[in-house]
Amino acid sequence: MPRSVNAVASRARRKKVIKLAKGYFGRRKNVWTVAKNAVQKAMQYAYRGRKEKKRSFRALWIMRINAGAREHGLSYSQFMGALKTNNIELNRKVLADLAMNHPEAFKAIVDQVK
Q1: What digits encode the pLDDT tens for the residues 33-92?
Q2: pLDDT over 90 at 4, yes or no
Q3: Are 24 and 36 in contact, with CB atoms under 8 Å apart?
Q4: Cβ 97 vs Cβ 61: under 8 Å
Q5: Is 2 left (phi over 0), alpha (psi -120 to 50) or beta?
Q6: Which Gene Ontology BP terms does the record give (predicted)?
Q7: Where do the structural domains in the chain lie, given as residue ranges?
Q8: Region 95-108: what's the mean pLDDT?
Q9: Which single residue of 6, 27, 70, 104 could bond 31 by disulfide (Cβ 3.0 to 4.6 Å)?
């Protein structure tokens, strides 16, 4: 019985990886084994980066809220604790935006929790 290889599927699989490697430098863009490893590593970095982005944005929001709260004589932890006790359910993203772009609205929230 003759040897059967599915060349159509193999080529399609390789083309998909080579397409993902578009824009890479040197052999990483057109040599199958090098491109496969480069794309696999890039996918790992992308997966990890999506998780890290959430962490870094949360840290940024906390810094902005802390800066806004300290202008009104509260620390970040005191301010967040006061929000919880007064049942004000605004997330950090919204609070950071208010502290940064709408200081009068942020001051109203601080006055409400003091």
Answers
A1: 999 999 999 999 999 999 999 999 999 999 999 999 999 999 999 999 999 999 999 999
A2: no
A3: no
A4: no
A5: beta
A6: ribosomal large subunit assembly; translation
A7: 7-112
A8: 97
A9: 27
